[in-house]
Amino acid sequence: MRWLKFILIILFCLFGIYSISMNFVDESKSFTHQSEINYPVDKVFPQFNNLQNFAAWNDFFAGKEDLTYSFFTPYEGLGSAMNFSDKKNNKLGDLFIRYSNVNRTVRYQLFDGESANPYLIDVKFVPNGQKTKLFWNIHTPKRDYLERSLNLIAEDFFVENIDKSMKNLYQLLGNKVDRDQKLASIKYDSIMVENRDGELLLGVNVSTRNTKDILFKNVIMNHGKVVNYVRSDLGKKDDEFGMPVLLTNPANLKDKEVSYFYGVPLSKRISVSDNNFSFQTLNASKVYYIYYQGNYNNRVKNIQELLKKAKKDTLRNGQLMEEFLEEPIDNQDVKLKLSLPVYR
């Protein structure tokens, strides 16, 4: 009993000392951090302004195998939102973009756990030639009296996270630059021939009105839906699935309504619980293909060139494949590889 009383007295004293020390700790804390990355701001900013991109390299999320994500439209800029959870470790939270000024500033609101008080994170981008300086301003949430000790380690936690994240982002952008250089060497508007390997696509079947204002917006929406599902629900990293492909009947391109399948290549068939998603198999085939860059609605001329080539060579054709070499973004030009399977 004496030892129990002694331990209780010690614990009571330690609790008293802790409680008194909390009087000297602020209920919230603000601090800044500066970093720099060797890429221009137009390459860096989109990685912050799109939460699907952000979650791929930020160390708070990246590499956490048990974390699952849900992303909500719009997928970039003001109003973007994501939810993350780890049921195994009872971790959950939400991240929002509350302000976005292209190539200048992004403001995030991070709710960690069930707290109603968020972290406020402002990132300012300052171009410096082919480099970008980033100024981080972080404000921790107001904490209850006995939780204020967390503010003592918050700055070290965020600084370590930022430094690791910037290394991840540098590596990611390095891979993207290599890809951009390959894209820059592409010869556009010339019909070529290749033997294309078979692929397994996971995606969605879609029907929509075929107008300039509606079709491309519909493609962008379904791109986000498919990529979000593959990344978040299936836990696939970017190097575990291929470039998005749209399949459609080229004979219906001028119809008032068009049907298409939008999916991404996977290495093997896996269990899919969402009935909105299905698999389609692309058989290996000889294809005529042409690269196109420009407004999405103007691609039809290049598709017609492929059809004319097949007809001239007295070949039948299969479904048109529109492979997106870059992520489709509203009000921006696209880069496509248009492929038409041909056979006798």
TrEMBL record:
Give the matching InterPro entries: Reg_factor_effector_dom_sf
Q: Which domain of life is it from?
A: Bacteria
- Indicate what this protein is called per its UniProt record: Polyketide cyclase
Taxonomy, top ranks, is: Bacteria, Pseudomonadati, Bacteroidota, Flavobacteriia, Flavobacteriales
